[in-house]
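A favour between colleagues. Tell me how you read the following sequence-structure pair.

===
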Amino acid sequence: MRVAIAGAGAVGRSIAGELLENGHEILLIDKAPTAISVERVPLAEWLLADACEITSLDEAALQRCNVVIAATGDDKVNLVVSLLAKTEYGVPRVVARVNNPKNEWLFNEAWGVDVAVSTPRLMSALVEEAVSVGDLVRLLRFSHGDANLVELTLPPEAALAGTRVGDVEWPEDTSLVTIIRGTRVLTPNKEDALEAGDELLFVAAQSREEQLEDLLSVRRKNA
């Protein structure tokens, strides 16, 4: 998979390093000469250019990319890169970094963003996830379909503890994608029984989050 990353700062380089280890082809783009540090990510391609300029993106052959990641520290730049990648080059998947949470509402399909990643929101979500049992925590927002990646740790008193996945009447527009049980990561099937302490990851429509939380929490048992 070919991935172009706009922004070769610490965030962009870290993403590039991870993706290279997974066997992907990476192009790093930055307009600042001081950001071009080939020795830090030697296996990546590098391009000294302004990712907000069509001529630069033509040079980067963005139409050949499967994914574009807008990872600069400037939200305006990330929005422009996302919009150009989607509308001018038809990139299938556009991921954008949100630096200021106040701007998060802009990072949607209208601007070409498929997935918006807000570092402050993610950090706060991870703090909540570490201390919350029985409460739904929103980890990531997907622009398409107004869906979110959410997590809930099943409390011991939950009514569904011991219930098979296939026997649960899940809300519409939700999908259980992963069960984290101790050190194991499980792909759920209908025969798996839910256990207290399971970390459950769902992709769910925002309108279904409260319904999902009620289904999995102790409140359902006491209703």
Q: What stands out?
A: The first strand starts at residue 2 and ends at 6. Helices lie at 10-21, 54-59, 75-87, 119-131, 209-216, 218-222. Residues 219-223 have pLDDT under 50 and may be disordered. The radius of gyration is 20 Å.
